[in-house]
Specification:
Layout (H helix, E strand, L loop, with lengths): L1 H19 L1 H20 L10 E2 L7 H10 L7 E2 L6 E3 L7 E2 L5 E2 L3 E6 L7 E3 L4 E9 L3 E7 L5 E10 L8 E2 L4 E5 L17 E9 L5 E4 L2 H7 L5 E2 L2
Parallel strand pairs: 1-14, 2-15
Antiparallel strand pairs: 3-6, 4-5, 6-13, 7-12, 8-9, 8-11, 9-10, 10-12, 10-13, 13-14
Bound molecules: zinc ion.
The site of zinc ion (ZN) has 7 residues, from loops.
């Protein structure tokens, strides 16, 4: 008798799943499992810059308006050949991080699935000029792009750089910058594997006193999700 009830329950659940679409459920379950796994595995990073940051990660209205006007492309493109590839993120602004001393997370981590270094292209979110390229203990192989609005867009933990990207290179929104990876968390250049593959995105501006100040990129990234380029990879 007990067995029968259990079986009926199972059938009901299966029917329900079918009604709302098995694919949706499975994708969501995958993403959830992935985020949980990522959170456990990843002692991710951030950057490097020892700037200030407001408690809530907001910036003056004029700065936020500038960012909104210059952000054009989500930094991870959609794979047309592998629609199951996924880029997921949550608001991890100021989450505790410990590499390089206790600190808050100055940015957002876009977790990538499959978490394979060198697989996901990273695109510039804005027009600008490459200001920094190279290794940082926290950020690994990173790129910093300075926009016309004076914002510093920081991409960290790259696997590799696009061949034509150097300091001083002028980029457009959508320009291929390099591949996402898991480099960083070490003073030894080239170290990988200390956390799951992801793209760390940071945004900084200079406040009135000239202090480099970190902004929470989360809301901006959410609004950019509709502007995901399609690429073959
Ligand atoms: Zn990060």
């Amino acid at each position: 008798m007990k067995k029968k009830i259990w079986l009926m329950y199972l059938l009901l659940v299966l029917a329900a799943l079918d009604v709302i679409g098995m694919d949706t459920v499975r994708l969501r379950a995958d993403a959830n499992a992935f985020m949980t796994e990522a959170k456990e595995d990843v002692e991710h990073t951030q950057d490097v810059k020892a700037g200030g940051s407001s408690a809530d990660g907001s910036a003056p209205e004029a700065i936020e308006a500038a960012i909104r006007s210059e952000l054009k492309v989500f930094p991870i493109p959609l794979s047309v050949t592998h629609p199951d590839y996924r880029a997921v993120f949550e608001n991890s602004w100021m989450s505790p991080r410990s590499f390089g001393g206790e600190r808050g997370h100055e940015g957002v981590d876009i977790m990538l699935y499959p978490a394979q270094r060198g697989l996901f292209p990273v695109l510039s979110m804005t027009d600008g000029v490459v200001e920094k390229k190279g290794w940082l203990p926290k950020g690994g192989y990173r790129l910093g792009v300075r926009s016309a609005g004076g914002i510093y867009y920081y991409y960290a933990h790259l696997y590799d750089y696009a061949p034509d990207i150097e300091e001083g290179t002028v980029v457009k929104a959508g320009t291929f910058l390099g591949f996402a990876g898991d480099s960083g968390y070490s003073n030894i250049e080239g170290t990988v594997g200390n956390f799951a593959v992801h793209l760390h995105v940071g945004m900084y501006y200079d406040d009135d006193e000239g202090t480099e100040t970190s902004i929470n990129p989360y809301d901006f990234l959410v609004s950019l999700e509709n502007n995901q380029k399609e690429m073959e990879y």
